[in-house]
Amino acid sequence: MDFQPTEEQGDLRAGVRDLLEGRYGREALRASVDGADAGAPVVDRALWRELGEAGFFALRLPESEGGVGLGLAEAVLVFEEAGRVLLPGPLVATHLAAGVVPGAAEGTAVVTACDLGAGLGGGLVAYAGEADAVLGVEGVPAGSPVRSADPLTPLHRVPSYADVSYGAEHRSVGALLTAALQVGSALRTVELAVRYAGEREQFGQPIGAFQAVKHLCARMLVRAEVARTAVYAAAVTSDDGEIAAAKLLADEAAVLGARDCLQVHGGMGFTWEADVHLHLKRAWVRAEQWRTAGEAEELLAAELLGSAAV
User: Fold this and answer.
1) Complete DSSP assignment for 161-186
2) For residues 225 and 129, what is the distance between their CA atoms, to the nearest angstrom?
3) Confidence (pTM)
4) Cα–Cα distances in angstroms (integers) from residue 226 to residues 9, 28, 211, 248, in the given order
5) Residue 310: pLDDT band with limits 50, 70, 90
6) What's the first-to-final CA gap in the chain, in angstroms?
7) Distance CA 200, CA 46 (A)
8) What are the two backbone dihedrals, phi and then psi, of residue 267, each rounded to the nearest 5 degrees?
């Protein structure tokens, strides 16, 4: 089955890419990191409203309710582009809150969720200090700030996840959209690695001419494309098992891809002058959001056992 986007979907993705690169290019990313280091808010409220006006959060909301009326297939394309530029903020939660939390669809409200798994200690909520609401929870629970691996994903530890009521469907869609963010990041690190390999010279020739570097870049591309195909397929079928598999593949592509990209960059990749480490840190955090590797593996194992018993 061909899971390539249609012409209309391709136009949608191109439009979103133009918007995000125009409003959140590399300079804006670096400014966000510098601002977060100085204690400034991470979420750009003006950009958040622009995304709302463009239909980013209301993409799957029915037209009768003021939304765009599209589906998961279009949503994963949009989120892939957001992952590509490392756009910070609780994008998935606010998207899921459209039509449920006032202001979410329009981008006038920032909505987060209790989506971080036990791999990061449990009880952690991203952007709690900047959110107007928490999906499925009354009010915004008070918590204490926790140092995050990613400077653009501030975390707060809250007492418990009691009374979270957004349900299994939201968790599944949240996992798929997070996987799309991971795919966007994975594809971007392929671009960064290939570009650097073509520019950096050693022994009188670009390092991309060396077989070891070629293999790293090729391996990154294969992982990213396999993950992208899995995400697109899961968006078409909406099957929970396929979504779990897509999240596993996307997490691996983003994390291992960023590590390989660091290897291609050498010591430069670990410095603040390069963006590679930011992709790795965001990938680590996203791997613990909505559905962890352990949760995905348990779901897939249960499906396999169920199939074998039939």
Assistant:
1) -TT---HHHHHHHHHHHHHHHHHHHH
2) 36
3) 0.93
4) 20, 30, 22, 11
5) low
6) 26
7) 38
8) -60, -25
